[in-house]
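Protocol step 4 of 6: structure prediction from sequence.
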Amino acid sequence: MPALTRRQLMQAAAAAGVAASLPGGAVAQGTGLAGKRILITGCSSGFGNLTALHFARAGATVYATMRNMPRAEAAALQQVADTEGLDLRLLALDVLRPHEVTGTAAKVAEDGGLDILVNNAGIGITGPVEVQDEEAIRLQFDTNVMGYHRVARAFLPMMREAGSGHLFFVSSQLGRVIAPGAGHYCATKFAVEAMAEQLAYEIQPHGLGVTILQPGGYPTEIWKNRNIYNSALKERIEPVHAAGYPEMVARMGTEDGSGRNADPMDIPRAIAEIAMLPAAERPLRRAIHPGTKPQMAINRVSAETQLSWVGQSQAWGPAVQSVLTPLPPTA
């Protein structure tokens, strides 16, 4: 038997640590994660950064993408990968730049294609609806909705040609329930939910699947980044609009997410768990949070409605039934 390379030894050691967080204590190298080719957007921090390392430590080939490269966050991620012998490949991808999206897709196709796509890059701009100007609305929709569409559209042809693959869309509890003062963030996540579910039905006949992740609030960099966007918007708000919501406007750019102590690793662990399931058993939606999950009842009613309506049609009935059966749990 040939001697193991340093990378193989390091991956085996990392996999042992990952195994403790996987369902049933399964060893990562034996679960189907090793050797998978995975691309994740928004890896500079938060869920994207953690997910990239989680999968790379399980033996996957990970394309970790982020905008504005080179940058310190990319160098730090590369250093971890080098130290641990991980197959983690950093690529520049700004979801607002179509040429970067298509260019990255071409590189991945040349490397051999993709098994899993994690659409994660997004922003939050909050505050009353009335104070949102066109610049803020356009940026948030362009990033959170059009960005997801650009990335999925670029990678779907190669996945469809392969006849297998799974796409994860990071949504939010606020893609199902509405929080006053969330600006257009709820609207973008509602759009993500609709777009991703429609896509799930359309690509099911090609052997591809979709899972929409619905995290609650987690202590990640999103709060810091949101404050930057909110502060910029706050400076542009016209007095005639700000006057109606003095308390809400005062809070814009000042919230830091303090008091939230849920473990952000819940998200990469959930993605790994779902990725290891047989394709037919992967859920359309997964609510992720140790606390209240108000969206779960909505998820179930939505699935029941889709099954009773579109699920009975001759054209799309089989695909809808395949995607939505079994029904999601209520708690």
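Step 5 (inspection) to follow. Residues 1-30 have pLDDT under 50 and may be disordered.
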